[in-house]
């Protein structure tokens, strides 16, 4: 028997993706900017095969069965990053996001206590992105899912910082996912963009907010989570602090060292090794780590929560917080 969202002891996965049914014709809204759609178990980008996928990605019944098998009570459901549409004309992207958000909302209606929809927005345009958040919140979305950059603009871009402030004002938590990874020309095989680029992109997103002083300008009420365990951030925090203390160009815009800002955001637990999780908890605090699996992709955690349960350094209270308590707070769930 699954526990409802917000119930004490509920296992809540904050990092789980969906690719709702979208036809080739519908994908043409993006007019050459990726045009993602589904064909017979294959994610498509225009006319090109992108990646084979399993029914849980588009079939809510199959997802709920998988959640039952693996002991997950609740998922925060976010679009597959291929769907962001950031390269499109902003007006077309706004129409696209509205369609995707409607589909995700309908998908989650299969069991609204267990499937919590996160919206996406046309982040390339501040006004349209803010409008999309306001409309999505009114429609029933429980948070916002964004990429860690829009082209050359990192999260410290003034418009993106203003957008994050708008999310705080709307009481909408924000899940940040790496995408469109850097160094693509040098990472052509072996899924290196996912194994190396994702960690670097996430680290870049976190440090861009810290060293630019953006966290000083953003309200403390902003609830922000970085996927994939914050990338390489926890392991390299000492390097960033050392640079801040010893180089004026590093601390030029930030009045405090990077380690002073770890209470301003969350990370998920998708690090796949109890030793890595131990370090992550030491850096962030157990209250800032939430279960995240990257469901239903094969590079995700196949046994949700297994690393949390295997980390001997965590006590029962820490495990309960990471497996669900922190996510209930992040998502604003009652109970």
TrEMBL record:
Keyword Metal-binding among UniProt keywords: yes
Enzyme's top EC category: lyase
Pathway field: Secondary metabolite metabolism; quinolate metabolism
Entry's Gene Ontology molecular function annotations: aminocarboxymuconate-semialdehyde decarboxylase activity; hydrolase activity; metal ion binding
Highest taxon of source: Bacteria
Entry EC no(s): 4.1.1.45
Key word Zinc present: yes
Limits of the Amidohydrolase-related domain: 12-333
Alphabetized UniProt keyword annotations: Decarboxylase, Lyase, Metal-binding, Zinc
Residues making up the signal peptide according to the UniProt record: none
GO cellular component terms given for this protein: cytosol
GO BP, sorted A to Z: secondary metabolic process
Family: Belongs to the metallo-dependent hydrolases superfamily. ACMSD family.
Subunit field text: Monomer.
PANTHER family: 2-AMINO-3-CARBOXYLMUCONATE-6-SEMIALDEHYDE DECARBOXYLASE, 2-AMINO-3-CARBOXYMUCONATE-6-SEMIALDEHYDE DECARBOXYLASE
Protein's recorded name: 2-amino-3-carboxymuconate-6-semialdehyde decarboxylase
């Amino acid at each position: 028997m699954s526990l409802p969202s917000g119930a004490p002891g509920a296992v809540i996965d904050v990092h789980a993706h969906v690719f709702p049914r979208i036809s080739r014709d519908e994908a043409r809204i993006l007019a050459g900017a990726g045009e993602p759609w589904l064909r017979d178990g294959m994610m498509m980008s225009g006319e090109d095969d992108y990646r084979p996928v399993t029914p849980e990605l588009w079939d809510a019944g199959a997802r709920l069965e998988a959640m039952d098998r693996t002991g997950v009570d609740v998922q925060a459901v976010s679009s597959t990053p291929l769907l962001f549409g950031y390269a499109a004309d902003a007006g077309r992207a706004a129409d696209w996001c509205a369609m995707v958000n409607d589909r995700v909302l309908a998908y989650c209606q299969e069991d609204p206590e267990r499937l919590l929809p996160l919206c996406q927005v046309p982040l390339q345009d501040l006004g349209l992105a803010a409008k999309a958040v306001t409309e999505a919140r009114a429609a029933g979305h429980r948070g916002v899912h964004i990429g860690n950059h829009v082209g050359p603009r990192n999260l410290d871009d003034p418009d993106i910082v203003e957008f994050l402030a708008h999310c705080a004002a709307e009481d909408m938590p924000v899940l940040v996912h790496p995408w469109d990874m850097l160094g693509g020309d040098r990472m052509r095989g072996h899924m290196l963009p996912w194994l190396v680029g994702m960690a670097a992109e996430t680290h870049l997103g976190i440090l861009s907010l810290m060293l630019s002083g953006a966290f000083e300008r953003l309200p403390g009420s902003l609830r922000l989570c970085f996927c994939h365990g914050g990338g390489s951030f926890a392991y390299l925090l000492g390097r960033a602090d050392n640079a801040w203390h010893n180089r004026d160009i590093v601390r030029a815009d930030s009045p405090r060292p990077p380690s002073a800002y770890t209470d301003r955001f969350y990370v998920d637990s998708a690090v796949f090794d109890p030793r890595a999780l131990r370090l992550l908890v030491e850096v962030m605090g157990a209250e800032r780590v939430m279960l995240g699996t990257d469901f239903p992709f094969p590079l995700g955690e196949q046994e949700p929560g297994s690393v949390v349960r295997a980390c001997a350094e965590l006590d029962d209270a820490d495990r309960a917080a990471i497996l669900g308590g922190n996510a209930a707070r992040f998502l604003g769930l009652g109970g």
